[in-house]
Write a structure and sequence with these properties.
By secondary structure, this protein is of the alpha+beta class. It contains nine helices and twelve strands. Strand 11 and strand 12 form a beta hairpin.
Length: 405
């Protein structure tokens, strides 16, 4: 630590001023370096936390490290599950590589070293000759790079390579900083992959749900149609002259129409992606837009000061519950006023659909109300519960609650 003593203050007569102060100036290069490192890591961490998208994470990391460490070129290798490597992101590749992408395929010295387990820890991060650039021209002066291994716990993820045309010998502080940045990037990559896996699970559950819904609604509808037609046919063959067969024919026609409507709705569910590019609150607001014509439909979104990101499967499930709830309120309840409220808190999310329709007895759900059964199943599949409050002539309130662990 360097200390400097500033001369004490004096009065005009040259005598020391009362309560004179001795100011000590302290400059510590290690503190300056530490502040520099923390500022870099903080900037990188903030950038990584802004998005769960893997491509954005990789490109943000490269741009930030290049900007903050004054690096010229950087690229990231990631490994497939089978161990094969692929170029996941790159910045300012020299012409010799950028103009011939095939030179960035296959193995190289740093990847082979990494796969063998010899590239692990800050002590092994250093400047090495790049085997892809070693015998090439038009490389913008690049010959060397530093390889930073990327891990999720003990599992290999890939390698971050950074390069500069005027490499100096890296200090222990430089190595530690790059190793820490690599650890942060590894965690961000793992988080992005888990997020994508969650979305895939949500999509799979949605397809399975649609398959069950088709079976539960369309299959039952077709069974009812067949039974009505068979009964009508039997009455006609028996010479029934009371016209009873017409009742069964009318029932078959009505079932056919309702089943066709269910089929169209299921197909529409398969073809649309209402949450693509939208948050759940935005998607719900868009969902209610067509119902606002001629009805008093209110959408209320209550969230904390900071918007929380929900897992994809929960967003999809709640959206479909809201969709079914609105359909029920209009088709069955004949409601004129509908309130839809989404409330998100750190520990749970709650969706409520309330209407002023004709209501029904909760203990005796009317026949054909497969939508209520489907809503209950959706809530259960996303780890929540569904509460239905209704009475004849008093409207209906449906509340879906999902805990956020």
């Amino acid at each position: 630590m360097n200390c400097g003593i500033v001369p004490e203050e004096r009065e005009g007569n040259g005598h020391p001023a009362p309560y004179s102060r001795i100011r000590i100036l302290m400059t510590d290069p290690s503190l300056t370096r530490l502040n520099f490192e923390l500022s870099i890591l903080n900037t990188v961490a903030e950038a990584l936390n802004r998005t769960p998208d893997l491509d954005q994470i990789l490109h943000v990391t490269l741009s930030k490290l290049a900007e903050l460490l004054d690096l010229h070129t950087a690229w990231i290798w990631l490994l497939h599950e089978n161990g094969e490597s692929y170029l996941a992101a790159a910045q300012n590749l020299p012409p010799a590589l950028a103009e011939k992408p095939e030179r960035m395929e296959g193995g190289c010295h740093c990847l082979d070293t990494y796969r063998s387990g010899d590239l692990n820890g800050a002590a092994n991060i250093n400047v090495i000759t790049c085997s892809r650039l070693e015998f090439l021209t038009n490389t913008d002066g690049l010959r060397y790079h530093t390889s930073i291994p990327l891990y999720a716990d003990e599992r290999q993820l890939g390698v971050l390579n950074v390069a500069s045309a005027d490499w100096r010998e890296l200090s222990e502080d430089d190595l530690r900083l790059l190793h820490t940045a690599g650890d942060m990037l590894g965690m961000a990559i793992e988080r992005a992959r888990l997020f994508q896996h969650s979305r895939m699970i949500g999509a799979l559950e949605e397809r399975n749900r649609l398959a069950r819904e088709i079976h539960d609604t369309l299959a039952q509808g077709l069974t009812g149609i067949a039974m009505s037609l068979e009964t009508a046919d039997a009455l006609i063959e028996a010479g029934d002259d009371t016209g009873r067969y017409q009742t069964f024919l009318q029932n078959a026609i009505q079932l056919t129409r309702s089943t066709l409507e269910e089929a169209r709705r299921s197909v529409l569910d398969l073809r649309t992606a209402p949450l693509e590019g939208f948050s759940l609150s935005e998607a719900l607001f868009n969902l209610t837009a067509p119902y606002r014509r001629g009805r008093r439909v209110h959408t209320i979104i209550a969230t904390p000061g900071k918007q929380l990101t929900l897992p994809a499967r929960i967003e999809i499930g709640l959206y479909r519950i809201a969709q079914e709830g609105l359909t029920n309120a209009i088709r069955h309840a004949q409601a004129e006023t509908i309130n839809l409220r989404l409330k998100i808190s750190p520990d749970r999310v709650e969706l409520m659909i309330e209407d002023d329709g004709i209501g029904f007895s909760v203990d005796r759900i009317p026949d054909g109300r497969f939508g209520l059964v489907g809503m209950n199943e959706r809530a259960r599949l996303i780890g929540g519960e569904l509460e239905i409050q209704s009475a004849l002539g008093e409207g209906t309130r449906v509340i879906a609650r999902v805990p956020l662990d």
